[in-house]
C-alpha cells in the first residue's frame, strides 16, 4: 500500500522467502504477527523516495 499523504510505502507479507530477503538486505519490520510462537507475517514501512531502489532488489522474484 502506498500512503501518498504520509509518503510511506507499507508492505505486508506472510511469505518466509520475502521476509528472509528483506532481512538480509537490512530492512527492519515494523510489525510482526506470530501464531503458536512462530512468525506468521511481517509488515514493513519505507519512505516513498526509496520505491525505485526497493523494487530493484529482486525480493519479489518467484523461486
Q: Could you explain the architecture of this structure?
A:
- The protein has 63 residues and is an alpha+beta fold.
- The protein has one domain (2-55).
- The chain is 22% helix and 37% strand.
- It has helices at residues 16-24, 51-55; strands at residues 2-3, 8-13, 31-35, 38-47.
- It starts with a strand and ends in an 8-residue tail after the last helix.
Quickly describe the structure.
Helices cover 22% and strands 37% of the residues. It is of the alpha+beta class and 63 residues long.
| Strand runs, count | 4
Radius of gyration: 12 Å
| Range of helix content | 10-25%
Strand content: 35-45%
- The low-confidence parts are none
Q: What is the string of SSEs from the N terminus onward? A: EEHEEH
Question: Main traits of this protein?
Answer:
single chain; 63 residues; alpha+beta; 4-stranded antiparallel beta sheet; 2 helices; 37% strand
